[in-house]
Amino acid sequence: GQRLHLMQVDSVQRWMEDLKLMTECE
Amino acid sequence: RAAQGRAYGNLGNTHYLLGNFTEATTFHKERLAIAKEFGDKAAERRAYSNLGNAHIFLGRFDVAAEYYKKTLQLSRQLRDQAVEAQACYSLGNTYTLLQDYERAAEYHLRHLVIAQELADRVGEGRACWSLGNAYVSMGSPAQALTFAKKHLQISQEIGDRN
């Protein structure tokens, strides 16, 4: 897959940190 | 069969939280198939979101974007504006990872409009932050400055010192 080449973009980094714990529950 | 669908969804979520993203996608695809079988649009929409999220951590941003677009489409059908806003935000960030800043800005703008409609100041602040970054990447500092100022104003208003 594509590499995480844009980790320097703070807003995207923050989103990905939140996303790690984000699940749509049943 | 319905309970099986929920179990697949829960297994997908558990693997996701454990960082097993490939396994998570296997279970969420099973969940998706059962949701379609039952015509359960809400469950189908959840499965697309979960599949999009897992593909971000698999580094398959292109695949994630396609799943998020399905989420967006269903959120409109289901008239769920909060989910629609979230899907736009996810697409904006995914297109940033794909280095397609024009499309990223398009989705962040859509997110901004919905956040304003919902009077969601936190969402609006995030949209402005993202738009500032997108316009910097597109070489449009004047537009970036407009959104950075708006981001500052909202952050002050909601007391977000960070």
Average pLDDT taken over every residue of chain A: 78
Shape estimate of chain A: rod-shaped
| Percentage of residues assigned to helices of chain A | 25-40%
What is the count of helical runs of chain A?
1
Question: Could you state the oligomeric state of the chains shown?
Answer: heterodimer
Share of β-strand residues of chain A: under 5%
* Proportion of residues in extended strands of chain B: under 5%
Shape of chain B: elongated
Q: Return the structural class of chain B.
A: mainly alpha
What does this structure look like?
- The complex is a heterodimer of chains A (about 25) and B (about 160).
- Chain A is mostly helical and about 25 residues long.
- Chain A contains one helix and no strands.
- Chain A starts with 9 loop residues before the first helix and ends in a 7-residue tail after the last helix.
- The N terminus of chain A is likely disordered.
- With about 160 residues, chain B is mainly alpha-helical.
- In chain B, about 85% of the residues lie in helices and about 0% in strands.
- Chain B starts with a helix and ends with a helix.
Topology, please?
The complex is a heterodimer of chains A (26) and B (162).
Chain A: H1 10-19
Chain B: H1 2-17, H2 21-38, H3 41-57, H4 61-77, H5 81-97, H6 101-117, H7 121-137, H8 141-158
Which key features would you list for this structure?
heterodimer; A: 26 residues; mainly alpha; B: mainly alpha; elongated
Summarize this entry quickly.
Chain A has 26 residues and is mainly α. Chain A contains one helix and no strands. The longest helix of chain B is centred in the N-terminal third of the chain and has 18 residues, at 21-38.
